[in-house]
Design a protein that fits this description.
It is built from 11 helices and 21 strands. The radius of gyration is 23 Å and the shape is globular. It is α+β, with helices and mostly antiparallel strands and about 500 residues long. It has a domain of about 160 residues: Neutral Protease Domain 2 (Neutral Protease, domain 2, Orthogonal Bundle). It binds tryptophan and zinc ion. The site of zinc ion (ZN) has 7 residues, from helix 4 and helix 5.
């Protein structure tokens, strides 16, 4: 379903550049893509970012954004130059203090050529001064900068950064962030992490946010507008900051009734996944017409639509589950999306069970029974769905079904040890589906190649009914439809990604 169109031959070009050995690559530019076969031009080669410092100013009336990005990185090869991914208008680039040449290239590349070549393995500081009206910029024919009546929001997947800061835009290069944005008094800036300071002068208020744990570029978010903030601390000690647009209308009550349970849900998820990995939790609901939610790190993005039918704790569970599965442990490549969505959906099933609205097994049986063998649902392999099917229903539902099948194969003791052990094993890092299979085999002492192949990779409906637990009390009589749990509709609708 995705919107981007890849240039023909893009994949070959990118992998060709990446295949050049380091020695031969000296005095050559870093690759324009990091080597992800789904998105050949996303991210860049030749350096690794450790920190983004963004000092910005935004005028909601005109959608004008300007400021300076200071990027701390380290070269990973000898470089004559390197790319950043960015769409706004650049006025100056400095590398280690000296002015560098720069030019826009391709759909979203900013090509930087420093005065002198850079040696492999050295720290570099890149300063980019820029300005622009993000809503007027597009790449591959789309924009992910969403205007609201009172400002704008940057929250999208797999790309959102190009519209507001220059980056190495791929989840495999995580970094810490300081995001400081001045807005006219009365407007607020919301971003990830903790609010370090608020200060006002000359009619402008500056909000400074800090993300002190590694964060993928697509998980960085910025919202500008009129917001009401709430702060609290969970029973388990996690600070919670939520923000609500002042113009949510009839959805406001249900939005608050959902997000204000963030602390309770974070503590509940900690019971399954281990300690909450970040210094702050929470979310925000801007006045936007989008229909989806996104697991932006520590500060989840929600759309008002998700609360149009009353409270929706299931979407809160989904996005908070991503804080462990997706944000703390991020995917190595976009093909590994099952590690995000399969587990976030499975957390919703566990929550359903907790709320007495159907057990995980019942929901698995329901998904299995609702899709006949000839349903195209089974042709999507959640373990490698391809860029056009990356966020399709099967990645979520067949993905969660795979998790239930794994649980039934290895038993609850190993399964819950695995759920909790995985975020610890790869804390603040990156991992692949193959890494997960290896780890699951290690924790359970069970060979799992056949199970993973059946549930994640085959383009067909597995023969065995959702690998039912041996202990299930009342198997449905043959030919009997499995009853639809009451919660089902709520779960189907929650993250709303299919409604965009
Ligand atoms: N990861 C999001 C979720 O499951 C869904 C999503 C996929 C999304 N693509 C997106 C959200 C693009 C926003 C924009 O919660
Ligand atoms: Zn999700």
């Amino acid at each position: 379903m995705h919107r981007r169109i890849l240039a023909p031959g893009a994949l070959a070009a990118a992998s060709l550049l990446l295949a050049v050995p380091a020695s031969a690559a000296s005095r050559s530019p870093g690759a324009p893509g990091i080597g992800d076969p789904y998105y050949p031009y996303y991210g860049n080669g030749g350096y690794d970012v450790s920190h983004y410092d963004l000092r910005l100013q935004y005028q909601p009336r005109t959608d004008a954004l300007e400021g300076t990005a200071t990027i701390s990185a380290r070269t990973t090869q000898d470089l004559s130059g390197f790319d950043l991914d960015f769409l706004l208008d650049v006025s100056e680039v400095r590398v280690n203090g000296a002015r560098a040449a720069f030019t826009a290239s391709g759909e979203h590349e900013l090509v930087v050529t420093p005065k002198a070549p850079l040696a492999a393995g050295t720290p570099i500081t890149v300063v980019v001064r820029y300005s622009g009206v993000p809503s007027t910029k597009s790449a591959y024919g789309f924009t992910t900068w969403h205007r609201t009546p009172d400002g704008a929001v940057a929250a999208d997947e797999p790309e959102a950064a190009w519209w507001w800061f220059p980056s190495n835009d791929h989840p495999s290069d995580k970094a810490t962030y300081d995001v400081s944005v001045a807005v006219p008094d009365g407007t607020r800036a919301i971003s990830n992490g903790t609010l370090q300071s608020t200060s006002s002068k000359l009619g402008w208020t500056r909000y400074t946010w800090r993300q002190n744990k590694p964060q993928a570029t697509y998980l960085a978010t910025l919202a500008l507008g009129r917001f009401d903030l709430t702060t609290s601390t969970s029973e388990g000690g996690v600070p919670v900051v939520n923000a609500y647009s002042e113009d949510l209308g009839d959805d406001e009550g249900a939005a608050r009734a959902s997000l204000e349970r963030t602390g309770e849900i974070v503590d509940w998820l900690s019971g399954y996944f281990g300690p909450y990995p970040f210094a702050s939790a929470g979310g925000y609901v801007p006045n936007t017409t989008t229909g989806y939610a996104l697991e932006t790190q520590t500060r989840v993005f929600y759309s008002p639509k998700q609360f149009a039918n009353g409270s929706n704790t299931s979407v809160v569970v989904h996005e908070l589950a991503h804080q462990w599965y997706g944000d703390d442990v991020s995917l190595k490549g976009w093909k590994d999306i099952w590690l995000n969505e399969g587990f976030a959906r499975y957390a919703q099933w566990l929550w359903s069970e907790h709320e007495g609205e159907g057990t995980a097994q019942e929901l698995a049986d329901y998904v299995y029974a609702s899709h006949p063998a000839d349903d195209p649902f089974w042709t999507v392999a959640p373990g490698d769905p391809g860029p056009d099917h990356q966020f399709d229903t099967p990645v979520y539902d067949r993905g969660a079904l795979a998790v239930q099948a794994l649980r039934n194969e290895i038993g609850d003791d190993a399964f819950f040890a695995l759920l909790k052990g995985w975020p610890k094993e790869h804390a603040y890092g990156n991992a692949s589906v193959a890494d997960f299979q290896r780890y699951a085999e290690q924790v359970s002492g069970t060979p799992l190649a056949a199970l993973f192949d059946t549930w994640l990779f085959r383009p067909s409906k597995p023969a065995a009914p959702a690998a039912r637990a041996a202990s299930v009390a009342q198997p449905a009589a043959p030919g009997t439809a499995v009853a639809q749990p009451r919660s089902w509709k709520g779960i189907e609708a929650t993250n709303g990604v299919h409604g965009r």
